[in-house]
Amino acid sequence: MHASRKLWTWLAVICVLSFAVLGWVGTEIYLSAPPIPQQVTSRQGEVVFSEGEVQRGQQAWLSAGGQQLGSVWGHGSYLAPDWSADWLHREALALREIYASKQFGKPFVQLDFEQQAALSERLKREMRANTWDARTGIILLSPERAQAVREVAAHYSALFGADPKLDALREQYAMSAGSLSTPEDLRALPAFIFWSSWSAATDRPGETAISYTSNWPHEPLVGNGPTAGAGIWSIASVILMIAAIAAMIFYHGRAGEGDDPVPPKADPLFDMKPTASMRATRKYFYVVIALILTQVGMGIITAHYAVEGQSFFGFPLGQILPFVVSRTIHTQFAVLWIATAWLATGLYIAPAISGHEPKYQALGVNVLFYALLFIVAGSTISGWLGTLQHLGNDFSFWIGNQGLEFTSMGRVWQILLFVGLLFWVLLLGRGLLPALRKPSESRGLIAMVFLAALCIGGFYATSLTWGPRTHYAMVEYWRWWLVHLWVEGFFEVFATAVIALLFTRLGLIAASTANSAIILETIVFLFGGILGTLHHLYFTGTPTFVIAIGAMFSALEVVPLAMIGVEAWRNYQRSKAAPWVQAYKWPILCFISVGFWNVVGAGLLGFAINTPIALYYMQGMNMTAAHGHAALFGVYGMLGIGLMLFCLLGLTERAAWSDKLLAPMFWCLNIGLAMMVFISLVPAGIYQAWASVTQGTWYARSPEVVHSPLMETLVWLRVPGDVVFSVGCAFLALFAFKLATGARGSNYVVGSVVPNKR
Questions:
Q1: Last residue of a domain, one of 179, 208, 225
Q2: Where do the Nitric oxide reductase subunit B cytochrome c-like domain residues begin and end (predicted)?
């Protein structure tokens, strides 16, 4: 107990210090973010962009699809360009041609070497010069640059409008004509994209050759290349990671692991009869499977749009289900079904652990279910209609699609979801309270489950921190608090503690050992994970020290993953500890596959892109998608499915349970995911990385690369993996259908967990 108290103290200290640093970084981002101009004018006094147009342009871009339609500063989807990189390249080419025409009366390509070199150097000097005047709030442009900006702005207004001359380009970008419908938005959008590219090329005040985005994107025309800090801190992070892994292996080898206890002769949970609230969670899991099927279907459609931008095998599907909508549902449902599985697991295990069900608990579980169903359906339908009908910026932010990846639902729905999560914490706390009050060996584990749940509910409040006109750098800062800390942080702690609790209830792990192990694992994970959030923010208008902190602590995130294989092997051994454990074979195998994908998806593919120098060239490319698919489904998805199977097993008469469909489900999901990642996404990401290194970010995301024969072939090579994966989903759905229509027990006692007389 004394050792556990020391570990709890260390955990509290690490969390307080880490969040203090993360909060301080946020204040520094706010103070040093790229300035938003009151006006952009030429030296002749001509207004290029007026006051408020940058902020309105940001709103217009987000309402048109935002991060579901291309990206800005590398965050978003991969089919349309990164607009900041695209604008920067287009403006540089336009300005160079204007120079050549005015000075030599010829196109740039017809000039000799000395003339080209002189104009190229002049271009770099002008694009990197910081002409922001803090006193007046004006960015001042030369007449030539103002002309170039107007030319690129006209292209963007036509592209996001309905100019038929750009229909072919929209097809390549999977854009719908008339993405923006009002003249005011079409004038303002270029202001925001210009500002994002201006921030990417203009030197910071008092700095030389370092832009507000630390020289991202790679653009040789304006002298944008990786900074010295990106290279140095990448090397330092690799050294730290190797040293930390060696230290963990040394500690693990020296301390060793206690032997697992001798398992009981019979399943301790065999005679447990679920209470009313536990049985009420059954419908959650069927909704989880429905969300999985919808998400996979939308993923297939979204991937196909990479070949036919607005059609599905010739059918003009984009008219009713445009790419923006299909990708929004695909990414949003991925988080929602995983979260739903974990929330339902918490509600299921609370009375099972405490042995008591509070009054009206079942009513609360049912109310929460229908509230969550209303939020999921309402946010999806309103976002879809808002996109199709172009209902404007205010509708998009408050009710429709905010245009932010993984946090796309409108603010009203976010508020309702936040209230729902707090209600879930209340229900979970009521169920766990008797067990928390009663001294026991597993009380530490139960406390960890509740604290993680409290953080899951409380930290969703970060989705409410930005407004319609919040600086884009601060939107990204708070968005990653939610996506990284909420999804990749506290949900992982919650799930790990739940699994440990389940194994202790089965008698496969000693509760005293699990207590200390879970606290220590949480310490190691959060020590790197909290400040590791900053690796998402290297190039989003943040101070340069963010690269140093993010690189070092994101390297530490990999350290606990190095030992995941050991834990997976121990779980495999536990699955053979006694004949009755075979009843839990497939939930345990799901937990083992989580270990595999933690090492491969989160560890190998994650660290492949997380060092600053790697991410500089690969941010916004398909290597990020490879990491995202392998980690999100392989780790969190398989974990959710494993927990779901465990709960369904407890909710089903053993005579009605059959494993026949679970074997093909398990292997098809894992093999299909591996095929999808390593046959298609990883090769596509490597090809794009080569294009980014050799010619620039703009080129890696251009139609020349994205729609090249090689890239389109790699898209088609996703089909075998997608088919195998979809077959796995079909087996899961068939299993659930048979379970729902099969024989079930009907006797249960409300308010207590009692033996099931069989």
A1: 225
A2: 37-218
Quote the percentage of the chain above a pLDDT of 90.
75
Local structure of 711: helix, strand or coil: helix
Please state, in angstroms and as integers, the Cα–Cα distance from residue 166 to each residue in 92, 156, 160, 178, 193, following that order: 21, 10, 9, 11, 18
153 located within any domain:
yes
Range of the domain at 589: 578-743
Mean pLDDT confidence for 327-349: 94
**Final residue of a domain: which of 203, 225, 247?**
225
In-domain check, residue 487: no
**pLDDT (average), residues 718-732:** 96
Residue labelled with tokens 């008797």: 434
Residue with tokens 């004394």: 2
Distance, CA of 318 to CA of 323 (rounded, Å): 7
Q: What is the CA 224 to chain-centroid distance, rounded?
A: 27
Write the CA distances from 669 to 217, 326, 536, 597, 663, integer angstroms. 36, 21, 28, 12, 10
If you write DSSP's letter for every residue of 560-580 in order, what string do you get? Answer: HHTTHHHHHHHHHHHTTSSGG
Q: Is pLDDT at 2 greater than 70 in this prediction?
A: no
In angstroms, the CA 350 to CA 338 distance is 19
C-alpha dihedral (468, 469, 473, 475), degrees to nearest 10:
-20
In this structure, which amino acid lies at residue 606? G
User: Over 60: is that where the pLDDT of 745 sits?
Assistant: no
Amino acid letter, residue 600: V
Contact 364, 346 (CB under 8 A): no
CA distances from 429 to 361, 393, 728 (A): 11, 39, 35
What is the C-alpha to C-alpha distance for residues 183 and 560, in angstroms, rounded to an integer? Answer: 53
Residue among 50, 21, 55, 63 nearest 35 (CA):
55
* pLDDT over threshold 50, residue 100: yes
Tokens 């090492």 label which residue?
599
Helices 361-389 and 323-354: crossing angle in degrees, nearest 10, is: 170
Indicate the SS3 state at residue 409.
Answer: strand
Distances (CA, A) of 212 to 38, 42, 127, 639: 18, 22, 13, 39
With respect to residue 120, please indicate whether it lies within any of the assigned structural domains. yes
How many residues would you count in the chain? 758
Domain CATH number, residue 654:
1.20.210.10
Within a domain: 558: no
Question: Is the four-CA dihedral 332, 333, 336, 342 of positive or negative sign?
Answer: negative
445-449 contacts: CB < 8 A, separation 24 or more? 445/497, 445/500, 445/501, 445/504, 445/511, 445/514, 445/515, 445/518, 446/353, 446/501, 448/493, 448/497, 448/518, 448/519, 448/522, 449/346, 449/349, 449/494, 449/497, 449/498, 449/501
Between strands 272-273 and 71-72, the pairing is: unpaired
Cα 687 off chain centre by: 23
Query: Total structural domains in the chain?
Result: 2
- Give me the sign of the Cα torsion angle 481, 536, 80, 96: positive
Q: To the nearest 10°, report the CA torsion of 201, 204, 207, 209.
A: -10
Quote the tokens at residue 505.
């209830």
Closest C-alpha among 395, 422, 421, 391 to residue 410 = 395
Is the pLDDT reported for residue 26 higher than 60? yes
| Over residues 521-538, mean pLDDT | 91
Do residues 3 and 516 lie in contact, with contact meaning Cβ atoms separated by under 8 Å? yes
What is the DSSP secondary structure assignment for residue 219, as one 8-state letter? Answer: B
- Please give the model's pTM, rounded to 2 decimal places: 0.93
Cβ atoms 393, 386 nearer than 8 A: no
